[in-house]
Design a protein that fits this description.
Layout lengths: L3 E4 L7 E8 L9 H17 L4 E8 L6 H11 L5 E3 L4 H14 L3 E3 L17 E3 L4 H15 L4 E6 L10 H12 L5 E5 L8 H9 L4 E5 L2 H13 L1
Parallel strand pairs: 2-3, 2-4, 4-5, 5-6, 7-8, 7-9
Antiparallel strand pairs: 1-3
């Protein structure tokens, strides 16, 4: 749960405490065991260049909107963090980013592409996103529509049928596109993990509401989608 690694040889006595917040689940692309080595490599590089002394700590957020913020509270109350790296799960990032503006604690993250993070004030003023935002995809999509003179569009995307686990990344991505389109487009979600999904009925419904379709889902579902469309 807790590791502290100090690196640096600068004569300046100032120590920067960097806290990494990421899930411990090794199946995730941004798991702690994948993130922390990269952070340590960067810190070691800065140390060789004569940078400040840096302490690296990490916490397992479990991708939980409960346990993730609790770890952030612990780090802040203990005075163990000057900068937060992460969180990477949207439902963990949102509350911690709001607290950080009160704590005056900067956050650097490769997550936070959701368009609600676009507004820095008043809640996310210390949040720095290093991986762009979904709203930029919305603007690109508008240019594509303009290029081909498409005006009637349907949005088709994967989302979890079990709403207790929150929404999918596909939902957040197309949410930004939906906003860019003026919140007027027809949209339809489906759970790609469901064994009872009727793709034929779904495609018929979508075809009746659009002349262009934007599909967001896994590679396997994309293949299934086009094979079904071709056969119909």
């Amino acid at each position: 749960m807790f590791t502290k690694i100090s690196i640096g040889h600068n004569t300046d006595t100032t120590t920067i405490r960097l806290a990494v917040l990421a899930p411990g689940d090794e199946t995730l692309p941004f798991a702690l065991h994948k993130v922390v080595p990269a952070v340590l490599y960067a810190v070691q590089t800065l140390a060789r260049q004569g940078g400040h002394r840096i302490e690296v700590l990490h916490r397992d957020t479990e991708c939980s909107s409960t346990y993730g913020p609790l770890h952030a509270f612990e780090l802040y109350n203990s005075g163990l963090a000057d900068v937060l790296l992460g969180p990477l799960c949207p439902y963990v990032l949102a509350p911690i980013a709001r607290y950080s503006s009160v704590w005056e604690l900067p956050i650097l993250t490769a997550a936070g592409q959701n368009d609600n993070f676009d507004f820095k004030e008043p809640h996310y003023r210390l949040l720095t996103r290093m991986n762009g935002s979904y709203s930029q995809i919305g603007l690109i999509f508008l240019q594509v529509l303009k290029k081909f003179n498409w005006e009637v569009v349907a949005l088709l995307f994967h989302n979890f049928e079990d709403r207790t686990i929150g929404n999918s990344d596909c939902y957040f991505l197309l949410g930004a596109v939906y906003t860019a389109l003026g919140r007027k487009s027809f949209y339809k979600d489906f759970d790609e993990t469901s064994e009872t999904m009727n793709y034929e009925e779904m495609l018929k419904e979508v075809s009746q509401n659009a002349r262009a379709e934007l599909f967001i889902g896994s590679v396997s579902e994309l293949k299934h989608f086009y094979e079904k469309e071709k056969s119909d």
